[in-house]
Specification:
97 residues, alpha/beta, 5-stranded mixed beta sheet, 5 strands, globular
């Protein structure tokens, strides 16, 4: 997982982004440089070992190359009490909140 450290730092200082992106394909995570919405890359990660506690109360956008992985990320964000979540892959989409 790459790109989450800046989100954790923000949360520890009492701030939170309006939304974050969890991307499950190769991507850049230089969002802090450009003051964009935070991007976290989980490509190639074992999703069952991810610590997504930093998503508590956040709106999360999920995009994956696999419906199964997108559903897993959606379930993990629900488990960690993310606020609103939308997950997509090709022609599949689901949401919570």
């Amino acid at each position: 997982m790459k790109g989450h450290d800046g989100i954790i730092k923000m949360r520890m200082q009492g701030y939170k982004p309006s939304a974050i992106w969890l991307l499950d394909y190769p991507c850049t995570t230089t969002w802090e440089e450009f003051q964009d919405d935070p991007v976290v890359c989980v490509n190639g990660d074992n999703l069952n070992t991810l610590d997504l506690r930093y998503t508590v109360g956040l709106d999360v956008h999920i995009s994956s190359y696999s419906v199964e992985r997108a559903k897993t990320l959606l379930d993990l964000c629900i488990k960690h009490s993310a606020n609103k979540i939308i997950a997509c892959c090709d022609n599949w989409i689901d949401w919570h909140g």
